[in-house]
Task: inverse folding
């Protein structure tokens, strides 16, 4: 077994294990529900690229420490950023998510708690999502002034359809494990006690399949759901944030109050 640990200033870690053809990547920042800073997103992308280059790895597993996946980006970190810096940070986030999305090997996300915002998108970038009844999946960006990109929206639309995607974003609601499973956001649901064993069981089944067959399947499926640009009152997106509403949304989050948007 090979273990690499990327450490960050606040004690956060991203742990990358390689064992028996598996890569297990664990986000460890449990005190803030595994929220990722821009630096952590950057490292996560680098790990994804290393996995892609390693011909010994047949399956990648992505999970969070403790009873959660990740709540996405650390919103408090944006409080001291300029609009330009915030947009750059969102770019790093999308790069990391896309890196795992385009891995040629099968990927599994483990959802045993909150997978929110960019954390939900990271989970959706994986081929298979295994969760428990404690999973919580949502994208409450309306309170933050985040202007979701078409790429972000499309990942959701492909799974749950346009109306449910808009409902999820418009209302800020989130789906618990059983409901997420019923909609196809989770491929499997199991108990917390059986989760680790179940993940390894699925990974072992995948490992036994032809690597070339699996790569061909990923490419074929990707071509069935292509990403295409559409025109819809284009307002300069994919700028990731609204320059007026985003600072107010972040301030309200930090101050634990309802935002007062002018738009």
Result:
């Amino acid at each position: 077994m090979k273990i690499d640990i990327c450490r960050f200033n606040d004690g956060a870690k991203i742990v990358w294990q390689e064992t028996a053809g598996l890569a297990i990547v664990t986000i460890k920042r449990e005190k803030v529900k595994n929220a990722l800073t821009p630096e952590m997103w950057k490292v996560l992308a680098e790990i994804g690229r290393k996995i892609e280059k390693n011909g010994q790895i047949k399956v990648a597993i992505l999970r969070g420490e403790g009873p959660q996946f990740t709540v996405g980006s650390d919103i408090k970190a944006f409080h001291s950023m300029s609009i330009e810096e915030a947009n750059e940070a969102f770019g790093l986030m999308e790069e990391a998510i896309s890196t795992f999305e385009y891995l040629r090997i099968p990927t599994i996300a483990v959802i045993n708690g909150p997978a929110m915002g960019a954390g939900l998108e990271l989970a959706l970038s994986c081929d298979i999502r295994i969760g428990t009844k404690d999973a919580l999946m949502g994208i409450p960006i309306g309170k933050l002034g985040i202007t979701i990109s078409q790429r972000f929206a499309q990942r959701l639309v492909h799974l749950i359809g346009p109306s449910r995607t808009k409902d999820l974003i418009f209302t800020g609601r989130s789906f618990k494990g059983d409901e997420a499973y019923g909609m196809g956001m989770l491929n499997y649901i199991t108990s917390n006690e059986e989760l680790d064993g179940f993940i390894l069981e699925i990974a072992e089944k995948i490992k036994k399949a032809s690597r070339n067959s699996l790569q061909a399947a990923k490419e074929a499926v990707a071509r069935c759901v292509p990403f295409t640009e559409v025109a819809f009152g284009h307002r300069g997106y994919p700028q990731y944030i609204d320059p007026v509403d985003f600072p107010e949304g972040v301030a309200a989050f930090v101050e634990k109050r309802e935002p007062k948007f002018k738009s």
Q: What stands out?
A: The domain at 2-218 is CATH 3.90.226.10 (2-enoyl-CoA Hydratase; Chain A, domain 1). Residues 228-238 have pLDDT under 50 and may be disordered. The chain has one domain: 2-218.
